[in-house]
Amino acid sequence: MSPQRHTHLDALAMALMMGLCALWGLNQVAAKVANAGISPVLQAGLRSAGSVLLLLVWCRFRGVRLFDADGSLAAGLAAGAMFSAEFALIYWGLEFTPASRAVVFLYTAPFVVALCLHWLVPAERLNRMQSLGLIAAFGGILLAFGDNLSLPDGRQMIGDAMLLAAAVMWGGTTVLIRTSRLSSVRPSKTLFYQLGVSALVLPPASLLLGETGIIGQPSTLVWVSLAGQIVVVAFASYLTWFWLISRYPATRLSAFSFLTPLFGMMFGAWLLGERITWGLGGAMALVAAGIWLVNRK
């Protein structure tokens, strides 16, 4: 039975998206902490492997059948492959371009969602004011991180292209879930496809990229950071995200994702002593205005 779909975001959806964006912003800090002991792509693979085991236990407890034939296999494997490619491209691209520059290119993903769903799902189409809201929210990202933009050199062009490709993978995964059989299966099964495929693909990708893997003897803080990513991010938050996609307009949900790097900047300053750019206040205002325009009735 397909879940009931809403045409607009209600208070529950907006509150959940705010919480998810804060968690994903905090995850940026957790990943940086874990990078001190575990290479990034391997870290993502271990995160998926731990989360898929947790998901199997959860589904067993809830009586959810993950392996019944329901016509979602092809779309599920494709979504898992795109999810894996997204992370591999992000971490590989960061070898060529700074993280603060990469954010700008990665957060073109909501435009991929908006443009694709505009043509594929009439109910997801944005009007002119909503499109302006999406542009305003992206303007907030430019204001917060744009001081790191300049004409790229050869290496940065490679990294920028990889981050743009990762954005296409990210947005494309959301579009695929929204427009395929995955839109009507349980969110736990959609998550199982993504975690299962990435758990198999990312560790070998780490070797191909020449990562060190486990670096020395990781500290307790490194393992705690990885455990938090497994339980809170890859399991709980992604399960919530897929639940939201199955019930609410994906384009309107995606507009909230512009908050994630801003939360990440704030958590980085608070927990790691990182620098906050002068435009953060204005960026928050632009993103908030953009989200309002996209989601207003």
UniProtKB/TrEMBL annotation:
Subcellular location: Membrane
Keyword tRNA-binding (UniProt): no
Any one cellular-component term (Gene Ontology): membrane
Keywords: Membrane, Transmembrane, Transmembrane helix
Domain EamA: 13-145, 158-295
Annotated membrane topology: Multi-pass membrane protein
Family listed: Belongs to the EamA transporter family.
The protein's name: Permease of the drug/metabolite transporter superfamily
Species of origin: Paramagnetospirillum magneticum (strain ATCC 700264 / AMB-1)
